[in-house]
Amino acid sequence: MEQRSLRVVETNKTFFSKITNSISKLLVPTRIGLNSMIISMKRNSLIKAYMNYISLQNETNEEKKDLASKKYEDAYSLYLESIDKNIMENLYKKVKNGIANDFEKEALAKYYFVVSLKDKHYLEYKYKKQEYLLKIDYETASNMKKESLLKTYKEFYVSKMDSLYKGLLKNYSVELTDNNKKDMPSEKTFDKIFGTLETYVSEILPIKISLKEENKKYQEEYDKYEEVAIGKLNEQEKILKNMVLIGISRKFFTHSLPLGATEECYNWLIEQMRYIITMETNKKKQEKAYETLIKIIEDCNLKLLSTKVYWDDPIEKEQYKIFWNKYNEIQKIENEEEKQKQTTILFLKDDLKKLYKNKRKNKKILNIYTNYLVELGAMKVLKNSCKTITYVLKGEKRVWNMQK
Which residues pair with 245 in a beta bridge? Predict the structure, then answer.
């Protein structure tokens, strides 16, 4: 399946000259129509194979079940191959001749970006190539007139996308681990994780919700995302959006984005907020940044750390229990303003302990945290005191006069 559906052409001059000469001999309108017809045929074959494959999931005859699975995989391969061929014989021709619109130009650019991943990031390439080809045809497939076929196609589409996104996120989780072993920055990997989650929630989840009544339970998750993703976002709002996305991931990608990787994602967002706090000179804006920081720390504790079963360090586990008990006691406070204040103090003090592990590197944020905790009345400033010592020589005796 992979050899056929993920077959990628070389992007060198020899390839381009060959394909240009071949396409130039064809009448473009006829060829476009032929390609569309072939894709439609392959799509219909895929839908039938998928329906048969799904209907036999509870089949006890393993041979019959395996045969249906093989037919489905073959139909899927041929379907992707037909879309791939259409891109090269239609899209490339239009871009080269200068008659492509902006969407078509962008589509071809994305195609070659995906192709470029093959040599260095093969697993990512494998998943993203399939994702790209499916998305290219989805709009056309959505215009199918027969309701039953359209519904089945959408079910196939969501099922396949679920699988591809799980594969992508699992791959990025491994990337995070590898980067940590090499002590390399993981900014690009975090961006890929959050980008993948956002694409899934914004594009795939709405289709999933619309297909089955039982999927309506995910509407709340989608609404949370929409609340924080509307309009032009500043840096803090983008971080909050990513917090919501990583929280949603616990519903759909628990195994693909395991607890360790998810915790690193939360820590990355916390680190970004610390940096914003250190760079913010406006008092009100800095307080707003503190609010965002506390939201992220609280979300991490509620959705992740409080449910964590396995801890590498037993002492750390016991310390967290004490911390969590304090948090629960604070939540019993009836006055909302006081409750929020005490929650802020608890989280900042806990974060201070983590930052003190690398005191030299975190000197600036440590000082800012300390000053803010003093303002909140959670810490006191101790006045410096010194002693002046005067050395007096009297004969052979040495006398120290000390003045405070």
Answer: none
